[in-house]
Amino acid sequence: MVDIVISVAAEVAKCLVGPITRPLRYLVNYRHNITDLNKQIERLDLARDRLQIPVDAANGQGDEIFRDVQEWLTYAEGIIRRRDDFNEHERKASKSCFYLKSRYQLSKQAKNLAEDIALKIQQAQNFDGVSHRPRLPPPPFISSASFKDYEAFQSRESTFNQIMEALRNEDMRMIGVWGMGGAGKTTLVKQVAQQVAQQEKENKLFDEVVMASNITQTPNIAEIQGKIASRLGLKFDAEEDRAGRLRERLKREEKILVILDDIWGKLDLREIGIPYGDDHKGCKVLLTSRDHQVLSKDMRTQKEFHLKHLRDDEAWDLFKKTAGDSVEKPELRPIAVDVAKKCDGLPVAIVTIANALKDEMVGVWENALEELRRSAPTNIRGVSKDVYSCLELSYNHLKGAEVKSLFLLCALLGDGDISMDRLLQHAMGLNLFEGFYSWTKATNKLITLVQNLKDSSLLLEGEDGDNHRYSSLCFDENENTFVRMHDVVRDVARSIASKDPHRFVVREAVGSQEAVDLRGWQGTNECKNCTRISLICRNMDELPQGLVCPQLEFFLLNSSNDDPYLKIPDAFFQDTKQLRILDLSKVSLTPSPSSLGFLSNLQTLRLNQCQIQDITVIGELKKLQVLSWQGPTL
């Protein structure tokens, strides 16, 4: 019996040891726990200060702070503010009548809080970045008022519905839309993007939609990656694996639609960083092209949709809406109907020519129809002869040499958005605005001419969200300070510019063989007689040793080389002494070509992401009025 009592007592004692020793431990370690808490708060304060530095920098760039980072900072601020209150409680507790009870409670709180703070400090050390670029709205419809009712065309609705049905099909991973240039492919896929983005959460096909437009005949992979990344709020470091970073970012989205607009040949999606097929079954790709075989054979799309011309009644409705009800007058209607038919049912041609002839007299309409019938257009891949004739007529109907010169200048400045600042600098350098010598007056003149071109549907509002983070020097930053050309309008403009009397040349050079071809071309009469050259280089090792262009006034060189940069030979500018505008992107001027010193007439120099070692040669350019310098490096 005694043994049983002893055994029971022993078990009871074991049960009591824990509850008794824990409070005792808090009392015994009271000073240690209070001291440790203060040390952890000091460490938290230091960690907060370190984290605040990149957060402040990100806020200054307009980035958005990750929610977990913001919550961490809020937590840290709260703890640091409570430090004095906690120490005050500790001081009062030592004077309290319930001294042991207060010490026990404070010691327990201090230990638990110190452990929690230690975990938070560890969390701060594991943050992978603190911010992201703001999410941009889904790609909008073409902003031109002439295209607002585009989706109402019945011939487009069926194609739109078929595309949406294909995107709902789980077995469809890549589909394409093809059709003549100016048919409205870009507008259609933007409508798809808009529809997907506006779906209710429970019916949402995709969590995210990203789009890259103007892929061009010589794709710049870095530009495509940049356009997609900007939509996702992803920033690249200069030396990192861009494709790998983009791939991992896209994989974070369970369901994502990637739209690549206006492709001209095979694109390696993995080189861009687009996960596809088994690599990411939730990623679907929508492509557009002028060429059906580019989609079906080069890209191996699973289904292609042909965007045909508008029906005659749809084309006439759009033409009448743009030109105005005056086309229904008995004396004008037969002529207007024939003019509309020459637009070949393509919206871009319908809108531009209707705007060009709007409110004109019958005789002007008759003359325009005769010009369209007699036109001998240049062949451009994917552009019908009728569309070429319509756009050329719209150009011819522009009122004044200044607006025509500005239109052709826009065609030389690349395939994407063009900043108004850049347009102004080039226009001033070429003296396009005769008699306007102050920046204020020239700015107002440019705004007027650009609006004229927009009203004629020959220029559109810029749409690249990433570029719109750029701060304009001369224009209201609250307004859209970028413009762009429809790809068909741009192609026709370049064709017009290549003819006499302009003699402008736009060349896209890809690979080392093109460098050999350039050397041969620079000795031709075409090169010697040209007045403006726009040269886009991709993956080239070298340039010709020199340009023999005694009449050259404008030279733009845009290279996509990252490492090494395309190098400018020392004597490259020796025979271009009439040059007034020099616009260089991603080229190496190390050492600075001595032939720069020959450019005694140079008025505008733009250096974008160029490497330069010695800037003293710039000081020798006595007539230089505009120097624009962006990015690296000295």
UniProtKB/TrEMBL annotation:
Protein name stated in the entry: Putative disease resistance protein
Keyword Transmembrane applies: no
Keyword Signal: no
PROSITE patterns assigned: LRR
InterPro entries: AAA+_ATPase, Apaf_helical, Leu-rich_rpt, LRR_dom_sf, NB-ARC, P-loop_NTPase, Plant_NBS-LRR
Native source species: Vitis vinifera (Grape)
Any GO molecular function: ADP binding
UniProt feature coiled coil, ranges: none
Keywords: ATP-binding, Nucleotide-binding, Plant defense
Family: Belongs to the disease resistance NB-LRR family.
PANTHER family the record matches: NB-ARC DOMAIN-CONTAINING PROTEIN-RELATED, RPP4C3
Domain AAA+ ATPase, first and last residues per copy: 171-311
Example of a GO biological process term: defense response
Highest taxon, organism lineage: Eukaryota
